[in-house]
Amino acid sequence: MAVLRDYTNSLDIGLKPLDIGLKPLDIGLKLPRGFRLRVTHGPDAGSVIESRGPKLSVGSAPENDLVLDDTQVSAHHLVLQWREGAYWIDHGGSGLGGLVTGNHSHQAMMLRDGSELMLGDTTLRFELLD
What is the dihedral of CA 48, 36, 66, 110, to 10 degrees? Predict the structure, then answer.
């Protein structure tokens, strides 16, 4: 009968772990913190949605992440999207546009914590999560 012995723990040939001086790579990539959209005015006042994802759609169509019951809001009114280290609002082809903290917009705009988005009869407050 053969006896197998385990020599892996007792084998020492004098090799040390190789340290070649590499440090973790910092490429400056910021990950989304997440955000909250709070409906502060309009038919859906009091509604809140939180997201930690890179994208959230808003409109009156049922396939949106945030569906608003506002007849002045288009089916696919806007998209919030993480890019370039910040959240941006894009009106996604909606000809209606909207106001972002008092500035009328039909094009992409960077959002800041506390930005107010006015679309139709609805006002949303954008809040970054901790």
Answer: 140
Q: Which residue has the tokens 């106001």?
A: 99
Q: What is the pLDDT of residues 28-61, one digit of tens each?
A: 666 678 999 999 999 999 999 999 989 999 999 9
Beta bridge pairs of residue 37: 49, 126
Phi, psi angles (nearest 5°) of residue 79: -130, 130
Report field, pTM of the whole predicted structure over 0.85: no
Asked whether 120 and 70 are in contact (CB, 8 A), the reply is yes
Q: Tokens 């910040």 belong to which residue? A: 86
Distance CA(100)–CA(104), nearest Å, equals: 6
Q: Which residue has 């994802």 as its token pair? A: 53
In the three-class reduction of DSSP (H, G, I as helix; E, B as strand; rest coil), residue 76 is classed as: coil
Tokens 């696919």 -> residue? 76
Q: How far apart are CA 99 and CA 117, in angstroms?
A: 6
